[in-house]
Amino acid sequence: MFTTYGFSFIFGGAGGKGLAxxxxxxxxxxxxxxxxxxxxxVGASESExxxxxxxxxxxxxxxxxxxxxxxxxxxxAGAGGSSVGAAGGEQAIADASYYTLTKNGLQAGVAVAGTxxxxxxxxx
Length: 124
Prior knowledge:
The protein is mainly beta. The chain is built from one helix and five strands. The chain has one domain.
């Protein structure tokens, strides 16, 4: 689960923190993330993203390398922890499913993005 804060107007950026949890080993890896995007987009929001890995290898690859590319469109709004709206597109991490909740703010548009996840040196 990752909590991110972002702003976008044509170009966008977001940053946040989260953790990768291995259900088999019960091990947590604390991580940071940064995202850059470009497209027809506008917004400012706080979001939570849950990534569910289908294989242990996909989880380990995410922890070790942490790159994601994505593209799509969204119109989402959130306030007080509730979210409304829809999004569609593709994230390019193999063997994973994504679920995003816009907790506060508004995001709308179509964009391509790149995201880097890495281990938090202070917390691990």
